[in-house]
Specification:
single chain; about 100% helix; mainly alpha; about 160 residues
């Protein structure tokens, strides 16, 4: 029979070996638990991303419809802007034409006023000349009348003398 001390050496070695194996297994379990927790966190992140992707997929038709609507509104707004610019240019052209016509009218008015002033001056000159001519005519009439009287007396005297 073996001595109890000798028989316990292999058991002790087995115990130590089992203890080391147990320690290694515990370390592996901890590593696996850490990996499991990390994997669980990663799975949650992926589930969150999947939820976001599903939400986007659900919203995509609405977003596309909204985009189409905004594109249509943008096209309409651009057309309105082009029309407004065209109207503005037309209005500007009309304003310039009106200003040119106004300037021409003002020049015509000034010329007409100058002609009117010249005509008024000419009328005044003609009135003065007419007054002078009327006075001269009066003088001539008076002189002619006096001469006619003198002539009449001469003719009458000659007629009397002839008789």
């Amino acid at each position: 029979m073996e001595s109890p001390a000798l028989s316990s050496v292999p058991t002790y070695v087995k115990l130590v070996a089992n203890d080391e194996e147990l320690q290694e297994l515990r370390v592996k379990v901890r590593v696996l638990e850490i990996k499991r927790a990390d994997d669980a966190r990663h799975v949650k992140e992926l589930e969150t991303k999947l939820g976001e992707a599903e939400t986007f997929v659900a919203l995509r038709p609405k977003l596309q419809a909204k985009l189409m609507q905004q594109q249509t509104e943008l096209i309409a707004a651009r057309r309105e802007l082009a029309d407004a610019r065209q109207l503005s240019e037309l209005s500007e052209t009309r304003n310039l034409d009106t200003l040119e016509q106004l300037e021409m009218t003002m020049l015509d008015k000034e010329v007409a006023e100058e002609r009117a002033e010249a005509a008024e001056s000419e009328v005044e000159e003609l009135k003065e000349k007419l007054a002078v001519v009327e006075v001269e005519l009066e003088v001539i009439k008076e002189g002619a009348c006096e001469r006619a009287i003198v002539c009449f007396f001469h003719v009458a005297r000659l007629t009397y003398l002839k008789q």
